[in-house]
TrEMBL record:
Family the entry assigns: Belongs to the UPF0014 family.
Keyword Transmembrane: yes
Entry's transmembrane regions: 6-24, 63-81, 93-116, 128-148, 188-213, 225-246
Domain of life: Bacteria
Pfam families referenced in this protein's UniProt entry, alphabetically: UPF0014
Keyword Membrane in record: yes
Name of the protein in question: ABC transporter permease
Subcellular compartments: Membrane
Bilayer topology annotation: Multi-pass membrane protein
Protein keywords: Membrane, Transmembrane, Transmembrane helix
Any single GO CC term annotated in Swiss-Prot or TrEMBL for this entry: plasma membrane
Length: 267
């Protein structure tokens, strides 16, 4: 089956629907019409630029250019993790926690998938590396952001209970164990929901794109399964790393709770 190419008119019709939704938002005074239009404009500019960059990368297959793009993706994802937290860590920790956790989980799993599972040669073929890393980074970013936000917010709210446990002689790991478990669980809920409903409630984006591009549905399902499993592993390992390092940062070497290492609430 040949791929049906989209014209500017086709995209214009779809964009008109977003404008219609923004208009309804203004009529109903929902207060999100402007945000909706800005988000649509941002996605248009970002995806068009990405399309042009990928076209260049696909033509050259330069390892240095690909490495530069992956680190830009990581840097932006690290900023988004920090920006989504109500109480972030002060200083460089606020940025480094999410970025280093995503680097360890997403990059490692992407390399494993390219070299061991897919066995593409060379392993840095941008047609495989960039989409795979992008999906892993995007989903891992959400998981880590939710987990860290849950950790810092609940630690602040339950600070008196934590300090009481410390006064009773508990180690810092015991004093915050319940909060860490809840934070990890919250970080994994999105991917668990995605796997649970895939194929019944929702048709995942990658599978949909492959079917629209002409791939056999069964092969598209296999690739989608691979991606879901990799995302689950990436989200889990990334959240685990971020929660372990973040919770350690909340206590000093004398086992004292250090909430002064968190910034004030955004609200």
């Amino acid at each position: 089956m040949d791929l049906v190419l989209l014209s500017p008119l086709d995209l214009g019709i779809a964009a008109a629907l977003v404008c219609l939704l923004a208009g309804l938002s203004w009529m109903l005074r929902l207060g999100i019409g402007r945000q909706l239009l800005i988000a649509a404009a941002r996605s248009t500019v970002q995806l068009m630029i990405l399309g042009m960059i990928l076209k260049t990368l696909f033509a050259q297959t330069s390892l240095w250019l690909i490495a530069a793009m992956t680190f830009v993706m990581l840097a932006v994802a690290g900023y988004e993790v920090m920006a989504r937290q109500q109480r972030r860590f002060r200083g460089g920790w606020g940025y480094a926690l999410g970025t280093s956790s995503m680097f360890l989980s997403s990059f490692t799993i992407t390399l494993l998938a390219l070299i061991v599972i897919i066995q593409v040669k060379p392993w840095y073929q941008p047609q495989y590396l960039i989409p795979l890393l992008g999906m892993l980074l995007g989903n891992t970013m959400s998981g880590i952001a939710i987990a860290l936000d849950n950790l810092t917010r609940n630690t602040w709210e339950q600070r008196h209970a934590i300090e009481a446990r410390l006064m009773l002689g508990h180690e810092w790991q015991q004093a915050i164990a319940g909060i860490r478990r809840d934070a990890l669980r919250s970080g994994l809920i999105p991917i668990i929901n995605a796997m649970t409903t895939a194929g019944i409630v929702s048709l995942p984006g990658m599978m949909t794109g492959q079917i629209l591009g002409g791939s056999p549905p069964l092969e598209a399902a296999k690739y989608q399964l691979l991606i879901l499993f990799l995302i689950a592993a990436g989200s889990g390992l990334g959240s685990l790393t971020a929660i372990w390092a973040g919770s350690r940062r909340l206590f000093d070497e004398r086992q004292r709770l250090r909430l002064d290492r968190l910034s004030a609430s955004k609200r």
